[in-house]
Amino acid sequence: MTTVGVMGGGAWGTALAQVAVRAGHRALLWAREREVVDAINIAHQNPLFLPGVLIEDGVAATVDLADLAAVDLILAVVPAQHLRATLTTFAPFAPPGVPIVLCAKGVEATSLKLMTEVLAETLPGAPAAVLSGPSFAAEVARGLPTAVTLAAGDLDLARNIAEHIATPAFRPYVASDLIGAEAGGAVKNVLAIACGVVEGRELGRSAHAALITRGFAELTRLAVALGGQAETVAGLCGLGDLVLTCSSPKSRNMAVGMALGRGESLEAALAGKLSVAEGVASAPAVTALATRLGVETPICEAVRAILAGETAVTPAINALLARPLKAEG
User: Fold this and answer.
1) pLDDT at position 117 over 70
2) Hey, which residues are catalytic here?
3) Nearest to 195 by CA among 301, 303, 292
4) Is it the case that residue 1 has pLDDT exceeding 70?
5) CA–CA separation, 270 and 177 (whole Å)
């Protein structure tokens, strides 16, 4: 492996390009925005999405998806709702047999499909892997330590990719449960909005901890119903990512929830934000998927209703607290 292709010039895509170079490879990053490409190639910066971070010399950028035809590994880091369109455009140039590592977190709103299903429909036969875990882009880009899950149906493939992207500060743990790895990343963004509402309303650390715990129960139920394993979501790609995303305003999803909790409208909470808060688009898809599978997700449903304008924050909180008492599980 010599060149890693990165689809997506946002903060996370840029951070993963940094990881690839630090692991000993060249990185070719595709971005839609000409200003991002020029800033990376000329000034070794991405001020639009990752300000204040010096980009490694081994990272080059392009606006032409066809340029990724010659890479040895592809990290797909475009937002979940844009993955299908991007992969469809890339399909005529896709090198056969080159693994695609899915790094976006979400459920496709129009089809209720996971990202691996989108990949299978747009690039049939492409070896698939999922990378997910507690990882703020700015921290990873600066070389601060983290650990993630690298899942693939073929464990040998997962091990091979992990060995090629691991650095002393970026530690992938391999797994074979693609569905569990995907489900954890998709649902945690919705729950992070709920945790942000708790923070914005100043409901206290006890409520925050309770919401994370009960939210994790929802995440686990949905992952298992989809065919994933509870053990997988109890790891970095589920619980680990949930704790991080629900514990810091650096999380885009939590920041949206905090604004809603303070009484701002959704439009105001999203105004001026270039980076995508995946939980906003994923909330209706996650709850629709849960309904289809007969899985109870009251916290996710409350977030969906708030985002849709069907209820205000206070009635949503009161309704959750008024639910019938039950055994924990």
Assistant:
1) yes
2) 188
3) 303
4) no
5) 33
Least confident window among 13-27, 190-204, 259-273: 259-273
210-235 core/surface letters (b: 16 or more CB in 10 A; e: else): ebbebbbebbbbbbbbbebbeebbbb
Residue type, 256: V
Check: CB of residue 216 under 8 Å from CB of residue 203. no
Distance CA 179, CA 79 (A): 18
CA distances from 229 to 166, 183, 232, 257 (A): 25, 10, 5, 29
Given the candidates 3.10.310.10, 3.40.50.2300, 3.60.15.10, 1.10.1040.10, the CATH classification of the domain at 186-321 is 1.10.1040.10
> How far is Cα 194 from Cα 197, in angstroms, rounded to an integer?
5
Judged against a pLDDT cut of 80, whether residue 181 lies above it is answered with yes
Handedness of CA 135, 141, 145, 150 (dihedral sign): positive
CA dist list (Å): 214 to 44, 119, 198, 207, 220: 43, 31, 14, 10, 10
Interval 18-64: pLDDT, tens: 999 999 999 999 999 999 999 999 999 999 999 999 999 999 999 99
Antiparallel, parallel or unpaired: β 170-175 and 100-102 = unpaired
Please, are residues 178 and 116 in contact by the beta-carbon 8 Å criterion? yes
Tokens at residue 148, please?
Answer: 């993630």
Report field, pTM of the whole predicted structure over 0.85: yes
Distance CA 97, CA 106 (A): 25
Question: In this structure, which amino acid lies at residue 130?
Answer: V
Q: Kindly write down the DSSP assignment for every residue of 167-196, as one continuous string.
A: BTTEEEEEES-HHHHHHHHHHHHHHHHHHH
Collect all residues with Cβ–Cβ distance below 8 Å to 171 and sequence separation of at least 6.
Answer: 145, 146, 147, 148
- 70-79 pLDDT tens trace: 999 999 999 9
CATH class of 3-176: alpha beta
Average pLDDT over residues 212-222: 97
